[in-house]
Amino acid sequence: MIKPATDNWWLITEVKIGIDISQIAYEGTGVATYTRCLVEAIVKLNREDNFVLFGSSLRNKKPIVEFVKNLEAKNAKKKLSFFPPKLLEFLWNGIHVLPVETITGPLDVFHSSDWLEPPTRAAKRVTTVHDLAVFKYPETFSKRGGHDIVKNQKRKLFFVKRHSDLVIAVSETTKKDLVEILKIPEKRIRVVYEAAEPVYYPRGKEQANETKKKFAIEGDYLLCVGTREPRKNLERVIRAFAEITAGNKEISLVIAGKYGWGEDFGGDQLSVIGNRIKLLGFVEKEELARLYSGAKAFLYPSLYEGFGLPIVEAMSCGTPVITSEVGSMKEIAEGVGLLVNPQSVESIAGAISKITRSEKLREELKVKSLKRAGDFSWEKAALQTMEIYRQVAS
């Protein structure tokens, strides 16, 4: 029996909550970070309710298995299934059969992931929506398999609109998209911001220099972080960098992140820059925090983001930020970083020139970044999410 809500509801209620943690399988992505950090914070804060952590993967199950193994919580049961992802997509996002309780057992609330939207038998439903890129920028998905991604996500969001009791949007921008594109009433949407992990904090020169040496980075550098794909707008970043630094061989452009899809950078594209650009590939978090801390500025003029987690990571390290003047990126960085038109090489180049030439500006933005980063925390996100569970359960 669910007891009446109070300000400290999690101390007195006993609700059985199912959470889909399948996205943890995709290490290095924003949705994996969101799922892992949110669940860790919720389970740590809430010792009274019972959690059933549902995770499904086939080839990439190791991260999920390790996560539940390391999670220290007696009130969190683990229900892992290793069905082929395509099968669950068909059953849940396609014909929408097989209630999730068939696997998890009885639940009061089920919180679905970014990818799958299973039906429930009796449980109330909460869904997190990270972005609506499949509607706004379908062309930014890979030509190989991208059609399937767009189709699957649109089908999932159809069931979110029809069946979710409350929808969590990761920004006001995503909330606005949910209202305008999917026509979901505002009263069914709650905004819960993401946050940087604790590993992201300012590092001293010694640590930053160690990492520079490891990656053979000489002198000053600008940093980009993210999967190398068209939506990240790296082609314009490189053109802007080449334009501004043509006569300055003492600054480099460092790009950290694995290759996603689309035309990658090399050969003639980089001939004007020579060896002043570094493609590092995937970088572990500790090293990434040091790269943020040592950078002159962080460049993130993405075409579209549901939230833009690297911006908060950079701010948490005290790094001056250059990002887009649109959507969630403006929402996070307005008044704190330099905002640019992501479609304009000249706009990006102008911000790079401004920030690299003024130490005073960089110091001002560093202070503002650290202050703004304090507005985001996983504890706050967990408390807000638990309040959402309470609302739908009661």
Concise structural overview:
The chain is an alpha/beta fold.
**Percent strand:** 15-25%
Q: Could you give me the name of the CATH homologous superfamily of the largest domain? A: Glycogen Phosphorylase B
Number of domains: 2
In CATH terms, what is the fold-level topology of the largest domain? Rossmann fold
Cα-based radius of gyration, to the nearest Å? 22 Å
Number of helices: 15
Termini separation (Å)?
Answer: 10 Å
Structural class: alpha/beta
Tell me the name of the CATH class of the largest domain: Alpha Beta
Helix content: 40-55%
Overall geometry comes to globular
Order of helices and strands: EHEHEHHEEHHEHEHEHEEHEHEHEHHH
* CATH architecture label of the largest domain: 3-Layer(aba) Sandwich
How confident is the prediction overall: mean pLDDT? 89
The unreliable regions are 1-6, 8-12
| Biggest sheet character | 7 strands, parallel
The total beta strand count reads: 13
Order of strands, widest sheet: 3-2-1-4-5-6-7
